[in-house]
Amino acid sequence: MKEESRPRPVFDPEISGDDRAVLAAAPELLVAACAPRPPRPRLRATTVAARLVWIPVFAFFYGVLPGGWLRVFFLASLDGDELVGGAMRWGRLPIAAMMLTPALQVLLLLLGQTDAAAVLAAASFTGWVAGALRHVREPAAARAAREHHGSYLLPGDFDRPAARLLVRAQRAIDAVLGSQAHGAGLLDDVNNAVVLPRQEWAIAGALAEHTRLRRERRAQQPERLSPRVRAMLEPQDRALALSVRSVTRRIEALEAYARRAGEADDAYHESRVLRELPEQNARYRDLLASTVGDEMAGAEIRGMAEDAHRAERALRERVTSALRAGHELRLPAE
Description:
The structure is a single chain. Helices cover 73% and strands 1% of the residues. It has 334 residues and is an all-alpha fold. It has three domains: 3-40 and 143-147, no CATH class; 45-137, no CATH class; 158-328, no CATH class. The longest helix has 65 residues, at 227-291.
């Protein structure tokens, strides 16, 4: 599938904003709805055994021993520019803990507070074990891709006819959301930020279903079926064709909506130009008054004053027209 006819992933608007951001940031982990749901990660015996050894050693080294200081000294010995960055990758709290905990333990031991030092060491060890366990659990993107499987649609969920239609819908939606009229609030009554993603998801869901039905029909190998059986399948083909025409009309309505948004853009741009004309005319009148003879300047200034009045009237008319164009834009009913 060519890049220009390749649709972007579509997400169910019901997915939370945080999960949607996680999914969008890791497209390589997403699995098409037409494919099986990703399985839960399985822990092999070797992985479990390695973690049983690695996690306690890791927590003891950084939580009880002065592992943080050893790490900083090691990075410093490399004589590189990544000393601060290499250490701060852990975050401020872990850095502070692995730097201060050994010093406090030594201080408590010097003061004879062995029990307090032991409690501090145990608490630090437990905290680093908990941190290590959080690090080795299933990544958030993989979990979201598995839990929301079927609530997002990928290019693999669409055949060529469906992908072309979805690309048309997405281009129309992008044109509306990227328009100056939308940015200026002229289309706020339509609530594009909410309605258009729902439209995109509804259209994508229908096109994905069209794709599944066409793939099933090809798998049935109609050329091998008898005329009687093919006749029994004709109502299904007509139903699919009607659904395709219905979705196509919805996409055409979106494209018409995008064209109206473009017209509102033109009117909004023109209104901004007209809004600046009175001030510009005043500057030109001053220019004429200071550089042209009195008689000629007087005639020009009077003419420009009349032009200014006409520009102001045109401005009001164009602004009204732009607002009307924005408020009249409506999406087709779902």
